[in-house]
Please model this.
Amino acid sequence: MKQNKIKNIIFLMLLGAILLVVGIFVISITSKTVSGLCIGIGAGLISMNAANLLISLYYKKRPDIKKQSDIDSKDERNISINMKAKAKAFDITIRSLIIIPFLLILTDSPLWLTLAAICIYLFGFSMQIYYTIRYNKEM
Model:
C-alpha cells in the first residue's frame, strides 16, 4: 500500500470529522439545511474512507487475495456481466422513472417539480440515444 494513499485517506477522514463537528455544533444554530448537508457529507467521508482504509489494510496482509481481485476485475466475462447488469438496471430505472411525473401531477405538486422529473427522464433517454449512435459508429 502506498504511503501517499494512506495520507489521502486520513486527510479525507479528518475533513469529514471537521464537517461533522461543524454541522452538529456550529451551523445547527443558524441553518438546519447547511447543518444537515455538513453532517451528511462529513459522515459519508468518514465511513467511505474508513472502509477504504480497512480494505487497503486487508489487502496488505493478503496479497494473494488482492492479486485475484485484480484479475477478477479485469476479466472479460466479469466486465460483460457487469455491463449487462448496468444496462438492465438502466432500463428498469427509465421505465419506472416515467411514472413519477404522473404521480406528481396527481398529488398536485408544483409545476417545476413535475418538469424537473420529466427533464431527468429525457436526459437519461437522450444519453441512451447518444451512446447508441456513438457505439454504432465505433463497432
User: Anything to note?
Assistant: The chain has two domains: 1-72, 75-139. Residues 75-139 form one domain. Helices lie at 3-26, 32-61, 63-74, 76-97, 99-106, 111-138. The two ends are 38 Å apart (CA to CA).
